[in-house]
UniProtKB/TrEMBL annotation:
Functional pathway: Glycolipid biosynthesis; lipid IV(A) biosynthesis; lipid IV(A) from (3R)-3-hydroxytetradecanoyl-[acyl-carrier-protein] and UDP-N-acetyl-alpha-D-glucosamine: step 6/6
GO cellular component: membrane
Protein's recorded name: tetraacyldisaccharide 4'-kinase
One Pfam family of this chain: LpxK
């Protein structure tokens, strides 16, 4: 069952009915982002020893794995094309997939056919969304846990561009490539690739959720960290996501924190800018953002971090914004739809008007049909544009220029070896 975010005076009985697994997930998440454990409930504190033990075991496994790669007992696979890793240090909500899409579109428009390598969580909702966005583009998407094997199968099928051609095309972005060359793979992009050590990479881009950062700075499962913050030393570029929702002082503090780990790291700011909605019953419909003015909204999401999604809805002029948050990648079931409809009925009775349901594109692509069961309520999917926010010379053009410079140096090193 989901977590419900509503005023204390308006909590329906259904809000307190959760499965044991959902209660555990919620408790672990609250512990991970609590900076003062003294304020945790007795129930939360009771599971801290178990989480601490699990984190210690995870740390040992992480250290062993790192050593095995360092001693070359585990082999790292090198693809014949440049590899771009877009990853993070924490679970969910860091903007990895939007950054992957941004890079892939830019490269495709430069005449370079990218191959996106996705693990494919929960039936591949992110991969499905990207596939829809890339219709008519020279972008390929490979889904599978063994991303080296997935990449090899695509390269065997389509062939690949010589790395020197890659550099030439980035230098002359307006060059129109032949249809034949677009079939060949020019670059591989690892979606959620920072901890995927089995593949060598040429650029390491690390995404950071500016709203939640690194929580209590503990390793999984006591905290949200997949690795210690020292792993930022491997990064070539750090991207602070949701920068538009963070105060200027907090942005400066985060920059100082990151540069305390690696002083030379370039830091870019990004945001998700809402552009329009579409009705889930008609994907070709396009509704302006003003559609939410003077309405009551129920945000329904199963994403890594729903905070930015809900905050964005509050800025669009809705009279009241309610929230139902499910676990990341949750597959909606018929029982979920019934519970959502019950919640909508409660909102309708309270405000004497039909509320509107808003979901993210990722939630839509996970199962486009099940959301239609919420009739007669209107269900809209929010579309957003990933944008690099200019900040003291760190602009979109600056990002692309730095990207080219790093790749050119890496490819020169490849050819010399």
């Amino acid at each position: 069952m989901p977590t419900v975010s509503v005023p204390p005076s308006f909590l329906p009985l259904s809000a307190f009915v959760r499965s044991p697994m959902e209660n555990l997930r919620k408790a672990v998440n609250e512990i991970a982002y609590a900076h003062d454990h003294a304020k945790l409930s007795p129930l939360h504190r009771s599971i801290l020893p178990v989480l601490s033990l699990a984190s210690s075991l995870y740390s040992l496994a992480l250290s062993l794995r790192r050593s095995l790669y360092g001693l070359r007992l585990f082999r790292r696979h090198r693809l014949p094309v440049p590899v771009i890793s877009v990853g993070n240090l924490t679970w969910g909500g860091n903007g990895k997939t939007p950054m992957v899409e941004f890079i892939a579109l830019w490269l495709a428009d430069s005449g370079i056919s990218p191959l996106i390598l996705s693990r494919g969580y929960a039936g591949g909702d992110e991969a499905k969304m990207l596939q829809r966005h890339f219709l008519g583009r020279s972008v390929k998407i490979g889904v599978g846990a063994n991303r080296a094997a997935t990449a090899d199968s695509f390269i065997k099928k389509y062939g690949y561009l010589d790395p020197s051609t890659f550099v030439d095309r980035l230098r002359v972005e307006t060059k129109a490539p032949s249809h034949h060359s677009l079939k060949k793979i020019g670059v591989a992009i690892l979606d959620d690739g920072m901890q995927h050590w089995s593949l060598e990479r040429d650029i390491e881009i690390v995404m950071v959720n500016g709203l939640t950062l690194w929580g209590n700075r503990r390793l999984l499962p006591r905290g949200p960290l997949r690795e210690s913050l020292n792993a930022l030393q491997r990064a070539d570029i750090v991207v602070l996501h949701h920068a538009d929702l963070i105060s200027e002082q907090n942005l400066k503090d985060i920059e100082l924190m990151v540069r305390g780990i690696k002083e030379s790291l370039p830091i870019f700011f990004t945001r998700m800018a809402p552009s329009h909605f579409f009705d889930v019953r008609n994907i070709n419909s396009k509704k302006p953002l003003e559609s939410l003015s003077n309405t009551n909204v129920l945000c329904v999401s199963a994403i890594g971090s729903a905070t930015a999604f809900v905050q964005g809805m509050k800025k669009l002029g809705a009279v009241y914004v309610d929230q139902l948050e499910f676990s990341d990648h949750h597959m909606f079931q018929s029982t979920d739809m019934e519970m959502i409809k019950k919640r909508l009925g409660e909102l309708e009775e309270k405000f004497h008007s039909k509320p509107v349901v808003v979901v993210t594109e990722k939630d839509y692509d996970r199962d486009p049909d099940i959301l239609k069961r919420l009739d007669p309520f209107e269900v809209l999917a929010l579309c957003c544009e990933f944008q690099i926010v200019p900040n003291r010379g760190f602009t979109e053009d600056g990002f692309k220029k730095l990207f080219k410079e790093i790749l050119e140096l890496q490819l020169q090193g490849r050819m010399q070896n």
